[in-house]
Amino acid sequence: xxxxxxxxxxxxxxxxxxxxxxxxxxxxxxxxxxxxxxxxxxxxxxxxxxxxxxxxxxxxxxxxxxxxxxxxxxxxxxxxxxxxxxxxxxxxxxxxxxxxxxxxxxxxxxxxxxxxxxxxxxxxxxxxxxxxxxxxxxxxxxxxxxxxxxxxxxxxxxxxxxxxxxxxxxxxxxxxxxxxxxxxxxxxxxxxxxxx
Length: 196
Description:
Blueprint: E1 4-8, E2 15-19, E3 21-24, E4 29-30, E5 36-39, E6 43-45, E7 50-52, E8 57-60, E9 65-68, E10 74-75, E11 86-87, E12 89-92, E13 95-98, E14 106-112, E15 115-117, E16 120-123, E17 131-137, E18 140-142, E19 145-148, E20 160-166, E21 169-171, E22 174-177, E23 185-188, E24 194-195
Parallel strand pairs: 3-5, 4-7, 5-8, 6-9, 7-10, 8-12, 9-13, 10-14, 11-14, 12-15, 13-16, 14-17, 15-18, 16-19, 17-20, 18-21, 19-22, 20-23, 21-24
Antiparallel strand pairs: 1-2
């Protein structure tokens, strides 16, 4: 799909429309507000793949895979490990696989009014979360499939882990963890969230 932003003249007599879609064929920073990023092929990295460092961004993987290790598949930290608070982010249709010992598949710190939809995540290694939200307000986490499998290295962690979350909607997710100490959903200092 193509996505456009349109401007109208002050007199209301027409205007211009500019495409704001961007095609992704490799891992990189996503830093242009208002952009709809489409993944166009499977990608792999031995570090962090996508760094979202601006608000009002959509990442649509369109069912393509993100294979990652030694980092995160998606985060809002830049390469200098500086956190960018973001809002109105959508991450959808991603197939995320941890191929060797990395970090949390999706780690978002200071995220508000955003959507994680229809993603599939598989992680196999110690001390990794599938989706980790830290200081998260009014987000929707729906229709995701998260498998935390401790078969490779014992200690795969929670499918969804949230710290400091308020008024989030976490519903209709298929969550599985095989580690004895892990939880499908773990909420810490979090209130008024909808779970089902």
